[in-house]
Amino acid sequence: MSEPAMLELSDIIKQYRVGEQTVRALDGIGLRIEAGEFTSIIGPSGSGKSTMLHLLGALDSPDSGSIRFQGNEIGTLNEEQQSEFRRHKVGFIFQFFNLLPTLSAWENVAIPKLLDGTGLRKAKPKALELLERVGLSNRAEHRPAELSGGQMQRVAVARALIMDPPLILADEPTGNLDSKTGAAILELLGDIAGNGNSVVMVTHDMGAVQYCDRVITLRDGKIGSNDRVERSARAERDTDAVVDDDSVRA
Question: Does the pLDDT of residue 37 top 80, yes or no?
């Protein structure tokens, strides 16, 4: 018997009321995402990208259909179960970083541990380890105002990893960055997927898809295409697009 997928969606429907109209944001979506895949979801505004990301992260529930995570149904979880799932199984990365301005970089990384009941002193070694992993060990005591945009996003990536989640969901992670810094973040996300995590990214940036293993297009709540990108082809891209973020100063 084959291993269950990291995520498997079957005939997902999600509708919203807009005034007197019912809008079907997702219309019969079927999808399978494996462990270690870096998947991008692209499409115009209103295509259903954000709705899908919310369902994958148990921020919302489908009206019908099935969402299975490592073989277990998550589409029908209650609010308490959804919260538990998000805390331990999913790391979220956002366009605007969502860092707390009064905390240092390592304290921002440690926040999910604190919310889970771990003391600050106990959480610090793991936070520092992750900052080193994303190339920011020398910025651990800096507050967000003292960091560049790319450095803040690296802190956010480290924060998403601190609970060791198998699934990383990224919502326009390069949307607030210049192209070179964004390329460095995409490289980092690719490395994370290479370590066995599943990374699902929603983006408007067509240039970002070259860093992914798979590109899914959405239009009017339906999958328009679902294409795999060969890793060898990605490896041939222009390395000038990548920048050492330590060279960027706020």
Answer: yes
